[in-house]
Specification:
There is one protein chain. The chain is mainly alpha-helical. The protein folds into two domains: 2-53, no CATH class; 65-193, Lysozyme, CATH 1.10.530.10. It is built from eight helices and five strands. It has helices at 2-18, 65-78, 83-94, 114-120, 128-145, 150-159, 161-167, 174-193, and strands spanning 23-24, 28-29, 31-34, 40-43, 52-53. Strands 4-3-5 form a three-stranded antiparallel β-sheet, with no helix packed on it. It has a two-stranded antiparallel sheet with strand order 1-2. The model is unreliable at 1-27 (pLDDT under 50). Pfam families: SLT. Belongs to the transglycosylase Slt family. InterPro entries: Lysozyme-like_dom_sf (IPR023346), Transglycosylase_SLT_dom_1 (IPR008258). Residues 72-169 form the Transglycosylase SLT domain. It comes from Desulfolutivibrio sulfodismutans.
């Protein structure tokens, strides 16, 4: 008798939380963990790698880039970055290959280095939703750090914020200059279409 009551209570709590936005007021994320035995844990902190943001976007591996745009639009709006800029980043970073790995070890759609991923709490770099969320959140940090200048933020995303701060501009690194030019070119072309 107690077990069905516990599941009913859990279902009622889950329904209540389902009616709430994915993040609490002030942008705080709600995390959910489905424990063995049907027990659901909710927290405002990620207590372990098993806790996922309550609104967790799982995307099938064989999805095309147009379908990934729903995820890109969601996180772009959430972090106040034009989704077309994010799309241009993904195109240049990985060519929309979900399991892309660069020669230097950057992973996933937004090519996040393992150390940066660890700092961002990214535990599943080849899951499109978490990878895009972490990359967009990192780009938001770079935009904030460099006064909203997209070229400097992209350079920092590619070469690291320390190098951009030291050079007070796009570093004289051919790969970084090429990356910034490609992303801005694709972004500008898409923005001009509207």
């Amino acid at each position: 008798m107690f077990r069905p009551m516990r599941r009913t209570l859990a279902a009622m709590c889950l329904a209540l939380f389902a009616s709430l936005p994915a993040s609490a007021p002030g942008g705080e994320v709600i995390y959910k963990y489905d424990a063995p035995g049907g027990v659901i844990h909710l927290s405002n902190r990620r207590l372990s790698k098993d806790y996922r943001p309550y609104f967790y976007m799982r995307v099938p591996r064989a999805v095309d880039q147009d379908k990934l745009m729903a995820v890109i639009r969601y996180y772009g709006r959430r972090y106040k970055i034009d989704p077309e800029l994010v799309r241009a980043m993904v195109e240049v970073e990985s060519g929309f290959v979900i399991e892309a790995v660069s020669p230097k070890g950057a992973q996933g759609l937004m090519q996040i280095m393992p150390g940066t991923g660890k700092d961002l709490g990214l535990t599943e770099p080849f899951e499109p939703g978490p990878n895009i969320e972490a990359g967009v959140r990192y780009m938001r940090d770079m935009l904030d750090r460099f006064g909203g200048d997209a070229s400097l933020a992209l350079a920092a995303y590619n070469a690291g914020p320390g190098r951009v701060s030291r050079t007070t501009g796009v570093p004289d690194i051919p790969e970084t200059k090429d990356y910034v030019a490609k992303v801005m070119g694709r972004y500008g072309a898409r923005s001009g279409m509207r």
